[in-house]
UniProtKB/TrEMBL annotation:
Similarity remark: Belongs to the D-isomer specific 2-hydroxyacid dehydrogenase family.
Originating organism: Lentilactobacillus parafarraginis DSM 18390 = JCM 14109
Identification of the protein by name: D-lactate dehydrogenase
Domain D-isomer specific 2-hydroxyacid dehydrogenase catalytic as annotated: residue spans: 8-330
Ranges of residues in domain D-isomer specific 2-hydroxyacid dehydrogenase NAD-binding: 114-299
């Protein structure tokens, strides 16, 4: 049995090597290159592919995989929004993801960024760097006095809720699917609008779907409390960036922590050499603001998460090849 892993980064390689050692029945090939039309030929002769990339898995690539008889594709991440689902189905390609490599990694990072916003650390860091050690006017707020609205209560949302509760915040949530435990606690509100109206902090943990593109737009912001904080460690496309900038300018939004950005592909996880060379003026506008924390999609980036992404994806691919089954199959 042969599996080829695409887009393997240096930090993933030791885990892939270890998995390979522990699975001597599998021939493992790997490349640092992403899966696209120029690299798909490397999958010829393999039984399955293991992938992670933000770039689309296009119909042309999936058609080729299908023509090589490669019917099993295992993603090392959660999000499946960059797969051409029709092409995968047409080629009979079964897809797995890693739904939970470390929900806590993302939740902890999101809470860290929220605390940085509330305690004005970005502003203080900048002041201190210039020798300004004064307190005023940068007085902070306390999370234990606030209501946090969690949008989507999947694994990451629930991990975030545990942390917010630990700080003593009041937590409310919106999701189409109600988690039975949270339901018992009476945490759910009935609509996104109700969540917007009642939250001091909005913590977004929804996957990207066709329906929720730009769900945080001018209309949504207008329904929120004045001075709301926005946390988006989920998907850039959920937030209409222009609307967010308008809401920051007007003061409607007091601060935002963005680990994702709608135009991040090709920009995040790249070294441009200097701030000026970042090729996106809108992103630079956001980064320059003291009350906005932009990070390059790093909430997931911990040793445990990276290890689990490699291991769980390889295990799922092997299981699909061996049995045609996996508990991580995705319904596209
Ligand atoms: C995902 O798992 O879908 C993520 O967003 C994290 C990714 C950058 C590896």
């Amino acid at each position: 049995m042969k599996i080829i892993a695409y887009g393997i980064r240096d930090d993933e390689k030791p885990y892939l090597d270890k998995w390979s050692e522990e699975n001597p029945d599998v021939e493992v090939a790997s490349t640092g290159e992403l899966l696209d039309e120029s690299t798909v030929d490397q999958a010829k002769g393999a039984d399955g592919v293991v992938v992670y990339q933000q770039k689309p898995y296009t119909a042309a690539v999936l058609d080729k995989l299908g023509s090589y008889g490669v019917k099993f594709m295992s993603l090392r991440n959660v999000g499946v929004d960059n797969i051409d689902a029709d092409a995968a189905k047409r080629n009979g390609i079964q897809v797995t993801n890693v739904p939970a490599y470390s929900p806590e990694a993302i939740a902890e990072f999101t809470a860290t960024e929220l605390m940085r916003l509330l305690r004005r650390t970005n502003t203080f860091d900048r002041k201190i760097a210039h020798g300004d050690l004064r307190w005023a006017p940068d007085i902070a707020e306390e999370l234990n006095q606030m209501t946090v609205g969690v949008f989507a209560t999947g694994r990451i949302g629930r991990a975030a809720i545990r942390i917010y509760k630990g700080f003593g915040a009041k937590v409310i949530a919106y999701d189409i699917f109600h988690n039975p435990e949270l339901e018992k606690e009476g945490i759910y509100v009935d609509s996104p609008e109700e969540l917007y109206a009642k939250s001091d902090v909005l913590s977004i943990h929804a996957p990207a779907t066709k329906e929720n593109e730009h769900m945080l737009n001018d209309d949504a912001f207008s329904k929120m409390k004045d001075g709301v904080y926005i946390l988006n460690p989920a998907r850039g496309i959920l937030v209409d960036t222009d609307a967010l900038i308008r809401a920051l300018d007007s003061g409607k939004v007091a601060g935002a922590a963005l680990d994702v950005y709608e135009d991040e592909v090709g920009i995040f996880n790249t070294d441009f050499g200097s701030f000026d060379k970042i090729p996106d003026e809108r992103l630079k506008n956001l980064i320059k603001r003291e009350n906005v924390l932009v990070s390059p999609h790093i909430a997931f980036y911990t040793k445990r998460a990276v290890r689990n992404m490699v291991y769980f994806a390889m295990d799922a691919n092997k299981s699909l090849i061996n049995t045609g089954k996996s508990d991580k199959l995705v319904k596209l």
